[in-house]
Write a structure and sequence with these properties.
single chain, 80 residues, four-stranded mixed sheet
Length: 80
């Protein structure tokens, strides 16, 4: 039986721009290829900044959802 790649949850609620993107980028640098990072934040600019950061890094945004209280992003590390 193969194990699923690990995932890491980043609770960045309450942080303002640019901190959510900076912390997400740092987590991606530390992640192994195949890892999933789930980023949760309340900064309204994150819905623009996080997808742009993922495009820049070459990783994959697998899921994005916005709730009234926060936004969540599921980012898969695919680029070295």
């Amino acid at each position: 039986m193969t194990e699923a790649p690990p995932h890491r949850r980043l609770d960045l609620r309450g942080l303002k721009c640019p901190l959510p993107v900076l912390r997400a980028r740092k987590a991606l640098r530390e992640a192994a290829i195949g890892d999933l990072i789930v980023v949760e934040c309340t900064d309204p600019l994150a819905v623009i900044d996080i997808p742009n950061m993922v495009r820049e890094t070459g990783d994959r945004l697998e899921r994005q959802r916005s709730e009234p209280a926060f936004s969540a992003f599921h980012i898969r590390k695919v680029a070295p």
